[in-house]
Amino acid sequence: MGISYTPKSKARDNRYLVSVKEYTQYHRDGYLVVRGLLSKEDTGLLYDLAERTRLGGINTKGNESSYQPEDPESKDPLSGEFIHQTRVHMVSRLDKTAEWGLLHPRILDVTEALVGPDVYALQSMMFLNPPGRGGQGWHQDSYYIKTHPDTMVGAWIALEEVDEENGCLWVVPGSNHEPIYPPEGNNGGGNVHAVDAFKDLRSVENVSHLDDEVNTLSKVVSNYPPPIPVPMQPGDVLFFHSHLFHRSYPNRTQDRFRRAYVCHYCNARSWVPWDHDGYEGESGNYRQILARGRTQLPYAEPAFGTEIYLSEAEDESDSVRMMGMDDGMMMPVVQKKE
Ligand SMILES: O=C(O)CCC(=O)C(=O)O
Predict the structure, then answer these.
(1) How many angstroms separate the alpha carbon of residue 54 from the centre of ligand 1?
(2) Which domains are present in the chain?
(3) pLDDT by residue (tens digit) across 251-275?
(4) Ligand 1 midpoint to CA 16 (Å)
(5) Which residues contact 217 (CB under 8 A, 6 or more apart)?
């Protein structure tokens, strides 16, 4: 016997309605650019947040040690980027505007259509990428953050014009259909969704490294037609699948930043054994904000009181049974709630 709960989005002015073409493109190619999704005003608020972050106006708990010399011994390909403060993680846990950006209703409108109806907001990253810095080599986001079943999607919000010069994102269309490639010798790591279920899943080294000679995920990338750049205008949002091969290059301009706010979401019925700050117990679900729909799993509420629009469906509804008819058709038969 089934339950006839039908998720119903809360009505709202200015709701973004996703077209079937957009939905299909996202699931086929692994990415979707929604032009002008955020208004000029809203993009401006996030741009100001980027500037406050850059100028140290947000307490980033030990991250504020900007512009220190890079550790040449470090094996972490991203260490230099953190040291030089080209990106700051989880600003949404530190700042009201950052939480509002993570839970922006129009971004959630799209996310709900792509991976919903139930949506967790997982994480936020502010990228600053000053001249000469930034960039992240080929990687898949679920290599770092596991959601199980794997339903994660990223939203890359351009806060200013981004192009090949200042380091826009590059994507490999269709690579979202690949599994996650695990690190060398890692038993159950790299967040492969079904460890030991593959016979020929090769391991990769130095994922995210800027140098394609060292980052061996680039060998798998080379099986595809040439990657494509995604130039964007402020307020455009790129939604990208968490298995998509993607990368960025360092900002090669001398006088332009490349500011972008990047957030991640997943279906709120997924187990999330991840939390940026560490967690207690078997999962980090209780730290993830329920942003749309509902869930039987633990969840967090917005810490700064950002308004969210959860499901409007009634709490309990009638049950539905599928009955076989003489002509072979299946018919739903509603059983009224007492
Ligand atoms: O914006 C960038 O430079 C890299 C972002 C990225 O690859 C990611 O968020 O997964």
Answers:
(1) 17
(2) 16-54+89-335 (2.60.120.620)
(3) 999 999 999 999 999 999 999 988 8
(4) 24
(5) 137, 138, 139, 140, 181, 204, 207, 245
